[in-house]
Amino acid sequence: MDRVIVLIAYPCGGKDKHSRMLIDFFKEKLESFLYIGTGEKFRNLKKSNYTSKLIEDSMKKGELLPNFLSESLVGSDLIKGFSKKKNLIINGFPRNVKQAKTLLEMMNFYQRKVDVVFIKITQKEALKRLLKRGQRLDDSIKTIKRRFKIFRKKKTSLIPFFKKNFNLIEIDGNGTSEEVHNRILMALGFYFNDLPLLR
Ligand code: AMP
Q: Rounded mean pLDDT of 38-52?
């Protein structure tokens, strides 16, 4: 397979969880893949460097980081690790139209089509999940509300861009993670009998 799958969601919408479940699915199928999770990469930066300190301060406030940071992260991972037969899973990028244009340019270069999986949950559900999770630096009611507001604002221009340039798949993010995972696999057109969790 040579799929390019982008996961986007409201904060606490399950992007990380569902990226991991997709990775496990690809591993089980012995499919090679490249995974790029921008949020995770930013969180894991060593705190010793000047840029990473600025990144941490910005993330704590729930703000989006400047485009050049995520674009160069994604770009350098593609340059280092992408190839013809590899699937690509991207989590957390693009977050705005500028980044989406960059992704389009990247995938035009590699001649790949993109599926964008948009996992939808309500703010109420997000807050409920946050209270259960609550271990990340940017996990507080105040910052999650801010992240939610930013996402909603960016979404207005992102969704039409996705619809025009990529294959946009909207997924109901409510329910158990297995249910949502199965919805994602089915929407991506993976073979029904391959779904190990389907009852
Ligand atoms: P996430 O884990 O995807 O929710 O990302 C956590 C935080 O990392 C976000 O709130 C942003 O501060 C930052 N971040 C991650 N990806 C991006 C991106 N593509 N553009 C800007 N900021 C990002």
A: 88
